[in-house]
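Mods, move this if it's the wrong board.
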Amino acid sequence: MSEKPTKHTKVLIIGSGPAGYTAAVYAARAMLKPMLVAGMQPGGQLTITTDVENYPGFADVIQGPWLMEQMREQAKAVGTDLVEDHIQSVNLKSKPFEAIGDGGQKYTADSIIISTGAQARWLNIDSEQKFKGFGVSACATCDGFFFKDKTVAVVGGGNAAVEEAMFLTKFASKVQLIHRRDELRAEKLLQKKLMENKKIEIIWDSVVEEVIGDDEPKNVKGLKIKNVKTDEISNLKIDGLFIAIGHDPATSLFKDQLEMDSTGYLITKSDSTETNIPGVYAAGDVKDKIYRQAVTAAGMGCMAALEAEKYLAAN
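Not the wrong board. Structure tokens:
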């Protein structure tokens, strides 16, 4: 098998989504001819988000996948080389930087913008993995619709969990929020809305021990939950389970090369997207665990492209 010729670019953008696409738009308009490798889930988390009401510029509710499609088309229109591939290893220790795709394609770059995003965290119990996609989900906006007039449970206690629980009341007849502590971490305003919602019941001090269901056809019937204070086990009858316990940044690729915090988020300089390696930038959820919004990710993508442009001009 002959080796594929190496692809070289001044700016290699790893990952799509609002950060990657915005970086591409700015880099392309700066005549840097960027190359964007879209990754496993082109468009990122917004492609599994339906209604978007908080992205500036749209008075009407827009759809997440549509917004990402528009950003992608815009990046392409201004001159980005869009590549369907998934980067599986990088070498940032020598110049030019190197990245290898799934099929062995080699990319070299004078600068790199990392926008690989984050993914939902799971409980990682066997029964949860078994029913994933068959009643167990990490995305209420994607799957809530399937639980019309049914009973569902949400696991978690932060903003995401409360928002998912509220969202699910649009469809489900009853929503049970299971939280391992005796108070929520979510914003006070959200908590107030939650408490006022008659469809939601909170189950405090509890963790999910097991997801119970049928094998043929595969579907969820209930949960075994444990009270962490009394160790008492009880059974809940539910039709669907939603996990909302946070996200993990997609940074395993950069271990031992880039500085990250204890939870794996890339660390950048203050008021900058520059990592500990000059010429390598990080934008979006891969470095942001505070805001995690499409608009802040897009803003960081813009910053990264401008910083890369400045870096390339100086070197």
